[in-house]
Design brief:
Oligomer: single chain
CATH architecture of the largest domain: 3-Layer(aba) Sandwich
Radius of gyration: 31 Å
CATH superfamily of the largest domain: P-loop containing nucleotide triphosphate hydrolases
Largest sheet: 6 strands, mixed
Helix content: 25-40%
Number of helices: 16
Shape: elongated
Strand order of the largest sheet: 2-3-1-4-5-6
């Protein structure tokens, strides 16, 4: 084995830049298994940064024990740090490495090639500006090559190096290189990459890696390192609009209130106008506090604490933004999703969604299509399997701030987390919001809900009674309002049947109509709670997801879900409106408790069993809960 690994590759001294002024390039290598990704990065690091004597000795020993290159150094072992990787000769985890030349600093992610580790590859791509896509010159484009190209395109990487590796194993044949170059150009045309540079190379022998190789005289392009040192990716987070996700509220004492986080994109200076995306409240930046003292301005990537000129309520997950270039705020959006879980993604499955610093309950409301990585065509689908890529629609339990991923990778990316295992189930990129009023932003109010409730001398509350038809919801709700009114409380009763005489007269009773019915009632209940009222809702509302969305409209503790529980047979016996009899006669469809299912509350604030309690006794329990909640 040779002892000298580092040829004199440095550019002339006058090209060298001080370390602190060098630009940085974040890139990843990807491609199918055994295409030589780790070997290529190991060669780059060796040829540019050099190895110490003890590293050379360790690499020599590892190459003899685990290597696949006979008597030569196996550069892949510089990166494959896991024992399992070295023994199997594959990359499993994402390995990040740092190296620099006199012209540029680099952060490189070596990602696994096996299909089952597609999730790791997506992780490595999430922060990269350029992707090196390796292709074995002997095999050409394979399915995993196309899959990785599609993923990096979805993840917003617009600059590609097509590294046709192992060119030495096809006798440095120009015809084979041109064939692969043309095939990839045809495949990638719909992916809209800004640049594709194809380079024939041998990572094992060093051809066209750090310097041009004499063994490919027909190739007139740059060596890989030269291209990496000079490529301009045009990705500048500082030029994007201000996005500052609040990580936590810093209140060390009663005199200081700041909002800590990292400037995701854009810049902010003392005196700048800002808006809280979710509430629409505006203010100005009073101070920018850091470990280095107060700063006049900061830009993307800096972690600081902002204080504002006005008393503005913010919590973790809120986004401070430029008021002239605001993010969308919505509970519904479309996204491209890379699915990473063995359990298929289907409509109705619920997860935790993490976007920025916000984590909220969310539901995959619809699977739209799946992407065929061979043809790049989309086909209608109702589910996504492991490692599939497809378009989905997401609905969150409460509004979140986002931009489309194409406009802002920092605020357009999210992950879905399995609620039971807390494993990442999918990685998504927002394509667009689904609300019709996409350019309408919330306008802050001077008189707050707390002020209105204070004027009424009570805490606002929504008391939501749910249960089967005939369980006694309306009767109990009416008694509850009467008793609260007698105690001087200001209330409003929203009964499902009454609302269907006006507000919801256009809705039917199928699943979609019922969800819309609950959505509208939830919005009205929220408005009335904002007015300071105690709102009592009596509504079948059969589906848990719909009630969860209604609850998310209210602050924590201001929504009481009460299950009016009665056996289905007892409800049939009561049948106060003759609904069950009509359903049995075939004259009524979509009756909850009949041909439509009912989902009892998962964590109700109270369960009143009307098979055991009278309506008055049940109402007493509800009133007691309301009064206790109003005093907290």
């Amino acid at each position: 084995m040779p002892d000298t690994l580092n040829p004199a590759l440095a550019p002339p001294a006058n090209d060298a830049l001080p370390l602190q002024t060098r630009s940085e390039l974040r890139f990843l290598t990807c491609g199918s298994v055994d295409d030589g990704k780790s070997t290529l990065i190991g060669r780059l690091i060796s040829d540019t940064s050099g190895l110490l004597d003890d590293q050379i000795a360790a690499l020599r020993d590892d190459s003899r024990r685990f290597g696949t290159t006979e008597d030569e150094f196996d550069f892949a072992l510089l990166l494959d740090g896991l024992e399992a990787e070295r023994e199997q000769g594959i990359t499993i985890d994402v390995a990040y490495r740092f190296f620099a030349t006199p012209r540029r600093a680099f952060v490189v992610a070596d990602t696994p090639g096996h299909q089952q580790y597609t999730r790791n590859m997506a992780t490595g791509a999430s922060n990269a500006e350029l992707a090196i896509l390796l292709v074995d010159a002997r095999r050409g484009l394979v399915e995993q090559t196309r899959r990785h190209a599609a993923i990096v395109a979805l993840l917003g990487i617009r600059h590609i190096v097509l590294a046709v590796n192992k060119i030495d194993l096809v006798d440095y044949a120009e015809a084979r290189f041109r064939e692969i170059e043309a095939a990839f150009a045809a495949f990638a045309a719909p992916l809209a990459f800004h640049s594709i540079v194809a380079i024939p190379l041998s990572a094992r022998r060093g051809d066209n890696v750090a310097v041009r190789s004499a063994r490919t005289p027909w190739y007139a392009g740059p060596a890989l390192l030269t291209h990496l040192e000079t490529v301009e990716t045009g990705l500048d987070a500082a030029e994007a609009p201000l996005r500052f996700p609040v990580q936590w509220v810093n209140r060390p004492d009663g005199d200081f209130r700041g909002f800590a986080g990292t400037v995701a994109t854009g810049s902010v200076a003392v005196g700048d106008a800002i808006v809280v995306a979710g509430s629409g409240r505006t203010s100005k930046v009073a101070r920018i506090v850091s470990f280095d003292g107060d700063l006049p301005a900061v830009s993307a990537g800096r972690s600081v604490t902002l204080t504002l000129a006005d008393e503005v309520d913010l919590v973790r997950g809120d986004v401070i933004a430029d008021p002239r270039r605001r993010p969308a705020v919505s509970r519904r959006f479309a996204a491209d999703l890379v699915w990473m879980d063995e359990t298929e993604a289907i409509a109705g499955h619920r997860f935790l969604l993490k976007i920025g610093t916000a984590t909220v309950p969310a539901t995959v409301s619809r699977v739209v299509d799946t992407l065929d990585v061979e043809s790049l065509r989309r086909a209608p689908a109702d589910r996504l399997g492991l490692n599939s890529i497809g378009r989905v629609e997401i609905e969150t339990a409460q509004p979140v701030a986002f931009d489309s991923y194409a406009d802002n990778r920092e605020t357009g990316a999210f992950i879905l987390i399995d609620r039971s295992t807390l494993r990442t189930a999918g990685a998504g990129m927002v394509t667009e919001g689904l609300d019709a009023a996409r350019d309408v932003h919330r306008h802050a109010e001077t008189v707050t809900p707390a002020t209105r409730a204070g004027l009424k001398g009570q805490a606002a509350l929504v008391v939501w009674l749910t249960g089967l038809p005939g369980s006694g919801k309306s009767t109990i709700a009416n008694i509850v309002e009467s008793r609260l009114s007698a105690l001087g409380r200001q209330t409003m009763l929203l009964d499902g049947d009454n609302l269907r005489q006006g507000l919801n007269a256009d809705l039917g009773f199928d699943t979609a109509s019922r969800s819309e019915n609950v959505r509208r009632v939830g919005e009205v209940a929220k408005l009335m709670a904002d007015a300071g009222l105690i709102v009592i809702v009596a509504l079948v509302s059969p589906f848990q997801a719909d009630r969860t969305r209604a609850a998310a409209l209210l602050p924590e503790g201001r929504f009481l879900e009460i299950h009016v529980d009665a056996p289905a047979e007892l409800c049939r016996q009561r049948d106060p409106k003759g609904l069950y009899a009509r359903a049995d006669a075939g004259k009524l469809v979509n009756l909850t408790g009949g041909d439509q299912r009912y989902e009892p509350p998962e964590e109700p604030a109270l369960v009143v069993s009307t098979g055991e309690l009278s309506a008055d006794q049940a109402a007493d329990q509800v009133v007691s809960l309301v009064l206790a909640s109003c005093s907290t």
